[in-house]
Specification:
7-stranded mixed beta sheet; Beta-lactamase; alpha+beta; PCN-bd_Tpept; single chain; 715 residues; 5-stranded antiparallel beta sheet
């Protein structure tokens, strides 16, 4: 019998089978690879596109945010740049001649520890990460100033690079902060690769779309961990920069107001203060502020009061409201200045209304009653004209109606008018609530010949590229009273200031006659729901017009619940803001444009990388005259303002050279100019006084130290 169990034959057969199987598998793979190579697709997915998506991404090329200026072209808010520190750990992008990754980690950590708030050991822990191509340094390595960046770059550390982050600079510090607002990177944008500034509060929020402009688009190559590869980018669409906003604020008056109100606020220790200086003919706000306030660059103080007190919170105006009551009574022909009445108290259905001294002054004229701020006088007047007629005047003056300021959360106030007692109370500003915007807007009818002007704070909007100007013209809202009535009210307001019995004698100024009405309004205690009853538990205010013959300005100041009433009282605190500010405003109005140099705006050229001499020559040829330099080097590495920024020819230009940073001679400089040095170098300046620099505690030519504060005295 034949044996088929032949081991050698079986092995040969198995070998043939395996070879055949291997050949089939190889053929399948070869065919598959050939198809992939030819079609560059797998299961219908394009591999080239997938690789492109993995290592290429399209991102936003942010537009430059528009600058906010005052009426004279002085910058209030402008774009700035902060820097974030990045360490490159991989050598995949380096070459032998010029490595751009970290080589000596010990040396790098030791050097960085001198400049950011991390210890050498903490830095080494970050640098010793093996799974990362690039590393960041957390909060201590973010928001670095240009000066801090320069200091780190001077260490000459391979692999240490900087990522620019957009930021916003407010060079005047606390400066109409709630009205101007602020711009910052939003919480949503913080996590994004492309961080964009967004406006919050005030003009920054209201005009955010115009200020932002239109972003462009750029394609960047990135590594497997998502980091952008240096120099590997292509711009698809150029951005369109945001428009510039010119406010009606006057830098000179606004700065002075901030100084005055800071002193009054610190001395009186109130709950709040507000102040508004408005053009009496146009309704344009030339200075406005509040306390508490904040510094929009550092955000110091923003948590103390988020609301804009000029539009968001209402209050009972008290006796300043009597200006409108008298205007309505004159217009209706029921106010006869020499007619007499019995002061002291008056019975109204539902209660008794008394003068503030309870007993009055006997039988006096209505004009004297107005000067003495008699409640009884104005109640009698609205009884004569009729409550319905009086209500129609309140509505004509815009009471309980929004001013449509455009600012967020504007309140419109209200008045109680259901019962005779409530109706009578509105005559002297009780039971009616307003905002400063509403009240001052109503007062423009008094100062402007009977025509009420819309309160506004924007002068124009300018496209920096096309130079197209959108001018915001003054807007007439209504004419609630006649020109004759308006003139009579202004005349009677002088009685309040210049008679022996007037309540506003403290508000006289030297360079003009003024008309002023004071107010002492009751406040509701939020804990009890009842009016406060303490001696100084009121909202004190003063409204004034100057020069009274033909007013240029309206100034309104409020002081709420002052705590420190010794050795000064409320009238001192209010007059110490009102009198000097109104005096200076009238002086500027009297000078007109006689002392104003002709100013022309032009785009500042790029002068970085030029020698110091070449840069100065180029700027001078373009008409720029005020040029100052910082540093010991001969080549310009940074300029302020930046290239192609529209700049006034009489504005100071700051140039920084390479080498050590040195202190310039800032004698005679403005605060704004000194802050330009701060922006460039990262050095902190502390100011005392207002005006122009008279002293600097670090002499010119000395080295600047970013860790030390330089004290500047202004006069």
């Amino acid at each position: 019998m034949k044996n088929n169990n032949n081991p050698q034959k079986n092995r040969r057969n198995m070998t043939r089978v395996l070879m055949l199987f291997t050949g089939v598998i190889f053929l399948i793979f070869a065919t598959r690879f050939s198809m992939i190579m030819m079609t560059k697709t797998v299961n219908g997915e394009n591999l080239s596109e997938r690789i492109e998506n993995l290592y290429t991404r399209s991102s936003i090329l942010p537009a430059k945010r528009g600058t906010i200026y005052d009426i004279g072209g002085n910058p209030i808010a402008l774009d700035a740049t902060s820097y974030s520190l990045i360490g490159v750990l991989t050598d995949k992008w380096s070459n032998e001649d010029q490595p751009n990754h970290i080589i000596e980690k010990e040396k790098t950590a030791e050097a960085l520890a001198k400049h950011i708030d991390l210890s050498k050991s903490e830095l080494l822990e970050i640098l010793n990460q093996t799974e990362r191509d690039q590393v960041e340094f957390g909060e201590p390595g973010m928001n670095l100033t240009y000066g801090e960046k320069i200091k780190i770059e001077e260490e000459k550390l391979p692999g240490i690079v900087f990522q620019e982050t957009p930021s916003r600079l407010y060079p005047n510090g606390v400066f109409a902060s709630h009205l101007v607002g602020y711009a910052a990177i939003s919480e949503e944008s913080k996590e994004a690769a492309d961080q964009v500034l967004t406006g919050f509060m005030g003009v920054e929020e209201e005009f955010d779309k115009q200020l932002k402009g239109t972003d462009g688009e750029v394609i960047r190559q990135q590594d497997s961990q998502g980091y952008a590869l240096p120099g590997m980018e292509m711009i698809l669409e150029e951005p369109t920069d945001g428009k510039d906003i010119y406010m009606t604020l006057d830098l000179r008056l606004q700065t002075y107001l901030e100084s005055l109100i800071t002193t009054a606020f610190e001395e009186s220790e109130p709950k709040s203060m507000t102040a508004m200086l408005v053009n009496a003919k146009t309704g344009a706000i030339e200075a406005a502020t509040q306390r508490p306030s904040f510094n929009a660059t550092t955000m110091e103080g923003v948590d103390l009061k988020w609301q804009n007190l000029l539009v968001e919170e209402t209050f009972e105006p008290g006796s300043t409201f009597k200006v409108l009551t008298i205007a309505a009574a004159i217009n209706e022909g029921v106010f006869q200045p020499q007619e007499t009445y019995q002061s002291g108290s008056i019975a109204v259905e539902g209660g008794i209304i008394s003068d503030f001294n309870k007993i009055g002054w006997g039988e006096i004229s209505y004009l004297e009653g107005f000067a003495r701020s008699s409640n009884v006088a104005v109640v009698k007047l609205i009884e004569k004209m009729g409550f319905d007629v009086w209500e129609s005047y309140m509505q004509a003056f815009g009471i309980s109606t929004s001013t449509n300021s455009g600012l967020s959360n504007e309140a419109k106030g209200h008045y109680n008018f259901d019962y005779p007692l409530e109706q009578a109370n509105t005559a002297f500003g009780q039971g009616v609530t307003v905002t400063p915007f509403q009240l001052v807007q109503a007062f423009t009818a008094i100062s402007n010949g009977g025509t009420m002007m819309k309160i506004h704070y924007i002068d124009k909007i300018v496209d920096p590229k096309t130079k197209e100007v959108q001018k915001i013209e003054p807007e007439e809202l209504a004419s609630p009273i006649t020109p004759e009535t308006a003139k009579a009210v202004l005349n009677y307001l002088t009685e309040v200031v210049y008679t022996d019995y007037g309540t506003a004698s403290a508000y006289q100024i030297d360079n003009a006659r003024v008309g002023v009405k004071t107010g002492t309004a009751e406040l509701v205690n939020p804990e009890t729901g009842m009016y406060y009853t303490g001696t100084y538990e009121y909202l004190y205010s003063a409204i004034g017009f100057a020069p009274i013959e033909d007013p240029e300005y309206i100034l309104y100041v409020t002081l709420e619940l002052p705590q420190n009433n010794e050795p000064k009282v409320f009238v001192d605190y209010l007059s110490e803001v009102f009198n000097p500010l109104m005096t200076r405003a009238v002086s500027y109005a009297q000078l007109g444009n006689e002392d104003q140099e002709e100013t022309v705006q032009a785009q500042i050229p790029k002068v970085t990388q030029l020698s110091k001499e070449e840069a100065i020559t180029k700027l001078e040829e373009d008409g720029f005259g005020l040029i100052s330099t910082i540093g010991t080097g001969s080549r310009i590495v940074q300029q302020y303002p930046a290239q192609m920024v529209p700049t006034l020819l009489n504005q100071r230009i700051i140039l920084m050279t390479e080498g050590a940073m040195t202190m310039p001679d800032v004698s005679g400089w403005s605060r704004d100019d000194v802050l330009k040095v701060s922006e460039l170098t990262g050095v902190n300046f502390q100011f005392k006084g207002e005006g122009f620099v008279s002293e600097q505690d670090l002499p010119a030519g000395y080295l600047l130290d970013t860790k030390k504060t330089i004290h500047i005295t202004l006069e």
